[in-house]
């Protein structure tokens, strides 16, 4: 491989304000989980507030993601975009993930869930058979990179 012939673009770190802005404005990202040497990544609705990243998940009693959530010690959440001109950015958040306690989840009543998260996506399930759970990704690290001027 001749590295002199490869096309490339430099990326630069994003500052805290840029990262926070994108985490607050975007509604979905990819949550990566792992159990017993196997990985599972799933798109999820998220809400970022006061340096806390929350994800809303639906459980119909047979959800693969729920099994992985129970087994994952450290999760990874990725948010990214690439525009038509090829400019891009990405944010990666890693840390432990935990289900909110009953008392903690009370702040996410129906109204708050509707205001904080993208509409719930159902795939043929009966809405009455779905349990909604809110998890917090307790960030150990947050890194953002973007193309352009450093």
TrEMBL record:
<dbReference type="Pfam" id="PF12900">
    <property type="entry name" value="Pyridox_ox_2"/>
</dbReference>
<dbReference type="InterPro" id="IPR012349">
    <property type="entry name" value="Split_barrel_FMN-bd"/>
</dbReference>
<dbReference type="InterPro" id="IPR024747">
    <property type="entry name" value="Pyridox_Oxase-rel"/>
</dbReference>
<protein>
    <submittedName>
        <fullName>Pyridoxamine 5'-phosphate oxidase family protein</fullName>
    </submittedName>
</protein>
